[in-house]
């Protein structure tokens, strides 16, 4: 067994089920062997107990029963202990593979800005679908492989005792272990294949309804959204019911297969006992051992469905891993971390910019500004000011032209995100090693008279719009950025607060010779910049 906290995580680097599983072959083999021994102990327990009961009925001296008595105890205890150890080992392997895959998925997420992706579905892929790798180990490979080994061993032992019963058992094993699982996946394939996408869709509509709840209630538009959620839920439930129905029918088939093995064993064994070729005490072994084996095989239809489900889920994860990147947030992070390669500044040359699957919002923009310069970008609503900022930040790839940003970038977004934590922790995002005193000072400079430990609520709903804006500003102030991109910094603020805040921002920008790009509709703020660039309407 291994300690997850001390061993490095496995990075799977693949979503191919076979390659995933064979990335830790020794642990996989060990888990399968432990699983086989646990299941084998269960079957051996019933077989030995059956012999013991029959033999005890003949009332021999107890010495003749001792080995069987010890065997029953050993198999009984061994079954539980081995199953426990197998569970530890197989879950350890499964969690390791899952951690590796999750790490790969996060890496893929950080490579792209995922502009335009449905966030609920993306979340469902990253959380639920990645977990499919757990099922692959615990519910598919270990049950199938160990059931196969135990079935082979049991069939050989029964064949040695009674070839006719062995043949019948082999037929029932093929029926229960191969045919029924295959039929189950055939019947339920389509509905199982839709489960993961439907869960993603449900997460998506539920997340959207949650975000939009105040507007929906205010406009009395909840019915339509609830109807959408109910519709997806109904489709999901139907798919789950179909899968459950297939598993139920397979369960019935399992009982039949087990009946064939038990009755067959009884008939063939009885004939052999009457013919004097089989000792009577072995009859119970021929009858009861197949029963125990079929208990092991009864999990296989569900395992076959889990295999199908895991493949669909891993395919969805693969789509995330191989999705084309949008923008270059990693480059942004490195330029933000790099200790300012050269003078801070932004050089935009011949830029055409726009959002994926839309035409360009901005065409042929030239905008160069240097350290210590403050430039206001103005223009009518929707003309593309935020699009220019997103492109300069690397969140969107330029459609044409070049954008070079030198220095440590600090960005105040128009809809800056507040996490559901304290004011202080929200500010600390600007500089992770900021001390409490520095956070308090940043809040003071951003004119937020709030205790650092006050909670801001989900999406900052427990603070006012102006307070949220200033907390986001404090996040910018606490960092040591020297290229500032500010999208509507004075929005939601009263005139005196806005003036005081800009005074402060300008003072610290001048001290660090920062290059400042301000997007604004506020003529007072624009007038306080060195230059005003007006974006033309296309
Ligand atoms: N995430 C997005 N996905 C697709 N299109 C977008 C997105 N954000 C903005 N757009 C579109 O891009 C165009 C430019 O929008 P942008 O937000 O850059 O304008 P803006 O000048 O900043 O407007 P405002 O002053 O109202 O904030 C608009 O037509 C807008 O509908």
TrEMBL record:
Chief localization: membrane
Location(s), subcellular: Cell membrane
Record domain ABC transmembrane type-1: where: 31-309
Entry keyword set: ATP-binding, Membrane, Nucleotide-binding, Transmembrane, Transmembrane helix
Domain of life: Bacteria
InterPro entries to which the protein is assigned, alphabetical: AAA+_ATPase (IPR003593), ABC1_TM_dom (IPR011527), ABC1_TM_sf (IPR036640), ABC_CydC/D (IPR014223), ABC_transporter-like_ATP-bd (IPR003439), ABC_transporter-like_CS (IPR017871), P-loop_NTPase (IPR027417), Type_1_exporter (IPR039421)
Transmembrane segments: 28-51, 63-82, 140-161, 167-189, 243-271, 283-307
The UniProt record lists the keyword ATP-binding: yes
Membrane-related topology note: Multi-pass membrane protein
Ranges where the ABC transporter domain occurs: 346-538
Pfam families attached to this UniProt entry: ABC_membrane (PF00664), ABC_tran (PF00005)
Protein name as catalogued: ATP-binding cassette, subfamily C, CydC
Species assigned in the record: Microlunatus aurantiacus
């Amino acid at each position: 067994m291994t300690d997850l906290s001390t061993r490095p995580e496995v990075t799977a680097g693949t979503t191919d089920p076979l390659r995933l599983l064979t990335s830790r072959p020794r642990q996989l083999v060990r888990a399968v062997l432990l699983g086989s021994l646990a299941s084998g102990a269960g079957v051996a327990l019933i077989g030995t107990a059956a012999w013991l009961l029959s033999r005890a009925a003949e009332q021999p001296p107890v010495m003749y029963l001792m080995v069987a008595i010890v065997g029953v105890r050993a198999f009984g205890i061994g079954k539980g202990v081995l199953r426990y150890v197998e569970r530890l080992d197989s879950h350890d392997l499964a969690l390791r593979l899952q951690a590796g895959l999750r790490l790969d998925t996060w890496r893929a997420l950080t490579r792209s800005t995922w502009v335009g992706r449905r966030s609920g579905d993306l979340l469902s892929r990253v959380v639920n679908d990645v977990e499919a790798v757990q099922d692959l180990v615990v519910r598919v490979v270990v049950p199938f492989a160990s059931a196969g080994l135990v079935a082979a061993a049991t069939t050989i032992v029964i064949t040695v005792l009674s070839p006719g019963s062995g043949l019948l058992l082999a037929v029932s094993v093929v029926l229960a272990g191969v045919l029924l699982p295959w039929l189950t996946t055939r019947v339920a394939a389509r509905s199982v294949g839709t489960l993961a996408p439907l869960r993603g869709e449900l997460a998506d509509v539920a997340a959207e309804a949650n975000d939009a709840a105040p507007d929906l209630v205010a406009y009395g538009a909840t019915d339509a959204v609830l109807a959408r959620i109910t519709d997806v839920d109904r489709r999901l439930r139907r798919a789950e019911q179909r899968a459950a129905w297939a598993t139920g029918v397979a369960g019935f088939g399992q009982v039949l297969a087990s009946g064939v093995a038990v009755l067959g064993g009884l008939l063939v064994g009885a004939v052999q006992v009457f013919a004097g070729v089989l000792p009577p005490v072995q009859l119970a072994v021929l009858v009861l051992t197949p029963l125990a084996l079929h208990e092991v095989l009864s999990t296989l239809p569900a395992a076959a469905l889990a295999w199908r489900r895991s493949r669909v889920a891993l395919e969805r994860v693969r789509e995330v891993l191989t999705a084309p990147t949008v923008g270059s947030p990693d480059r942004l992070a490195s330029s933000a971390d790099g200790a300012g390669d050269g003078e801070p500044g932004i050089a935009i040359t011949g830029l055409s910019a726009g959002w994926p699957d839309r035409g360009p919002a901005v065409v042929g923009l030239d905008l160069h500004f240097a350290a210590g310069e403050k430039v206001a970008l103005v223009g009518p609503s929707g003309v593309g000011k935020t699009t220019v900022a997103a492109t300069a930040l690397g969140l969107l790839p330029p459609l044409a032209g070049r954008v070079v940003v030198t220095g440590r970038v600090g960005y105040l977004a128009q809809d800056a995100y507040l996490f559901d934590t304290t004011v202080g922790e929200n500010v600390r995002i600007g500089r992770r090693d900021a001390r409490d005193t520095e956070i308090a000072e940043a809040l003071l400079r951003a004119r937020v008279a709030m205790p650092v430990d006050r909670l801001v609520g989900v999406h900052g709903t427990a603070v006012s719009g102006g307070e949220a804006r200033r907390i986001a500003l404090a996040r910018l102030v606490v960092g040591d950025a020297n290229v500032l991109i500010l999208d509507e910094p004075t929005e939601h603020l009263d005139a005196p607060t806005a003036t005081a805040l800009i005074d402060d921002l300008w003072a610290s920008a001048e001290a660090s010779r920062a290059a400042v790009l301000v997007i604004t509709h506020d003529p007072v703020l624009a007038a306080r910049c060195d230059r005003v660039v007006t974006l033309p309407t296309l």
